[in-house]
Amino acid sequence: MEKLRIVFMGTPDFAVGILDTIYNSNYEIVGVITAPDKPAGRGQKVSISAVKEYALSKKLHLLQPTNLKSPDFLLELEGLQANLQVVVAFRMLPEVVWKMPNLGTFNLHASLLPEYRGAAPINWAIINGETQTGVTTFFIDDKIDTGAMILRKEIPIGADETAGELHDRLMLLGSEAVIETLALIENQKAVTTIQVENPDVKTAYKLNKNNCKIDWTQPGSTIKNLIRGLSPYPAAWTIIKDGDQEWHVKLYAVMFESNSESKAVGSIYTTKKEIVIVTNDGLLKVSQLQFPGKKKMLAHELLNGHSFSENAIAL
């Protein structure tokens, strides 16, 4: 058995949960690598990554390279004398980095590979209406999420579960998977499985303004899946037009009711507590949304101070 000396690489909250589990399992973490600080928001206040915040709180050795091929960074990384690197929600590594430790570099990915390789696996599993997902650990190679798999763990996806809720459950599942993977590697019992290439596998494309926009010609269940798959971040959005006013509105929580409706697709009407948008096969009842310049609110809170005309429509 070779005692592990681990370098951890990651940036967002999801990675923090995994790092915390490794730390509390008493593995030796000789270094943490995360994204450089960057200005964010209207005031351009410097923002630090969630992983940096955690590393500082635990007094872990921290590196924030802007260039992963920089000779200075590579020298410092080599000086840590790690024999294993663990990567969770970081960026693509150059070969000189992932080949450095003698026990290799493994990644935790929040999908059942080879399905949903890419930047947003949690979101796309829900958007596409999957009923199960999971996590996979694999040794990194020269492509994105294609390396030899070490282990996979599955969980079901709830019918109304949001990306935020699934994120938190996968973080716990991922923590278990990483600890099991560390034990396998430490005890020289890791057996890998090569990913089978299949042209039909689904991809977890990077989210952008275009693929987050609601298409009201789609079936109501498809629209519901998009909304919950993007909630709470970055959020599905639509244009709501009412007379000469137009708003860019984010939708966070909806219910879909299948029925025949004579009103035009996208038509909006309200009850005392609900905002209802007509789809081509039923009604989408909006329970949480956000108008520009306002905080996220429940539909009935918005309706306390806002009314829609009978010509209001979602585009």
| Low-pLDDT residue spans | none
CATH architecture of the largest domain: 3-Layer(aba) Sandwich
Number of domains: 2
Strand arrangement, largest sheet?
5-2-1-6-7-9-10
* Range of strand content: 25-35%
Order of H and E elements: EHEEEHEHEHEEHEEHEHEEEEEEHE
pLDDT averaged over residues: 95
Per DSSP, the total helix count is 8
Residue share in helix: 25-40%
Distance between the termini: 61 Å
Level-1 CATH class name of the largest domain: Alpha Beta
Q: What's the CATH H-level homologous superfamily of the largest domain?
A: Formyl transferase, N-terminal domain
Structural class: alpha/beta
What is the count of β-strands?
A: 18
Q: Biggest sheet: strands, sense, closure?
A: 7 strands, mixed
Cα-based radius of gyration, to the nearest Å: 23 Å
Describe the structure.
With 315 residues, the protein is an alpha/beta fold. The chain folds into two domains: 5-186, Formyl transferase, N-terminal domain (Rossmann fold), CATH 3.40.50; 220-314, Methionyl-tRNA Fmet Formyltransferase, Chain A, domain 2 (Roll). 25% of the residues lie in helices and 29% in strands. It has helices at residues 13-24, 50-57, 71-79, 95-98, 121-127, 163-186, 220-229, 299-303, and strands at 5-10, 28-33, 38-40, 45-47, 62-63, 84-88, 105-109, 117-118, 132-139, 149-156, 203-204, 236-242, 245-258, 268-270, 275-279, 282-290, 297-298, 313-314. Strands 5-2-1-6-7-9-10 form a seven-stranded mixed beta sheet. Strands 12, 13, 14, 15, 16, 17 and 18 form a seven-stranded antiparallel beta sheet that branches. Strands 3-4 form a two-stranded antiparallel ribbon. Helix 4 (95-98) links the parallel strand 6 (84-88) and strand 7. Helix 1 (13-24) runs parallel beside helix 6 (163-186) and helix 5 (121-127) packs antiparallel against helix 7. The protein is elongated and about 70 Å long.
